[in-house]
Amino acid sequence: MLRELADVIAEPLSIILERFLRTGEVPEDCRKASVTPIFKKGKKEYPGNYRPLSLTSIAGKVMEQLILEVIIKQVEEKKVIRSNLRVFTKGKSCLTNLIGFYNGKSGCVDEGRAVDVVYLDFSKVFDTASHNILLGKLREVWAG
Questions:
Q1: CA-to-CA distance for 29 and 1, rounded, in angstroms?
Q2: How many Å is the maximal CA-CA distance in the chain?
Q3: Are residues 54 and 35 in contact, defined by beta-carbon separation less than 8 angstroms?
Q4: Please, are residues 41 and 11 in contact by the beta-carbon 8 Å criterion?
Q5: H or E segment at 134?
Q6: How far is CA 121 from CA 86, 87, 125, 133, in A?
Q7: Nearest residue to 66 via CA among 10, 2, 134
Q8: What confidence tens digit (pLDDT) does each residue in 70-123 have?
Q9: Which one-letter DSSP state was computed for residue 41?
Q10: Which of 77, 110, 111, 137 falls 20 to 30 Å from 103 in CA-CA distance?
Q11: What contacts 24+ positions apart, CB below 8 Å, involve 79-87?
């Protein structure tokens, strides 16, 4: 349905997005979400085993995608993530990262060098992190 209406809704969506970017204010309709509990693991009777899933409007999702593209472009252009870091990003497969990591570390071990590995699991970070702190950190990155 959206594809068939694209000619009709493209201009209003672009006006809304432009206003959002200019003023920094998100339209009320784009801020509203229906929150649905999604079961993670464990006993279904325990509320802590669920995570909230926010179902937002189509316009909000379109804006999120556009903003994500801009953020990714900025991260790549400003070289926020060095190319030698093993991160899972678009264009880098999980297998390629694992093979590269394994080859690099096994080479160090073969040469008798010390190897330190730090694993960070961000899978639940957005369930607990303060969005105000995250926004502050993003502002710091873009300003610097």
A1: 20
A2: 65
A3: yes
A4: no
A5: helix 131-143
A6: 13, 12, 8, 19
A7: 10
A8: 777 887 788 777 666 656 566 667 777 778 888 888 888 899 998 888 776 666
A9: S
A10: 77
A11: 80/141
